[in-house]
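Format notes (please read before filing issues)

Several people have asked whether sequences and structure tokens are stored in separate files. They are not. Every record keeps both together, in the order shown below: the sequence lines, then the token lines. Line labels are part of the format and must not be stripped during preprocessing.
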Amino acid sequence: MWAEVLTVAVAWLTVVCLLLARVPKPPSLLDSPQDVSPLDLDQPEDSEPR
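Then the structure lines:
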């Protein structure tokens, strides 16, 4: 009985995690300010001016 319940629970969690991984995540307010474009997120910020 418990083996079947555990198997079904693991299967559902796997499906949910796979579905969540496919959904694009919106930019978080805590991670970066709104005025940063998505293209600038991949490059590290330079702390010293050139």
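For reference, the curators noted about this record: The CA atoms of residues 2 and 8 lie 10 Å apart. DSSP finds one helix and no strands in the chain.
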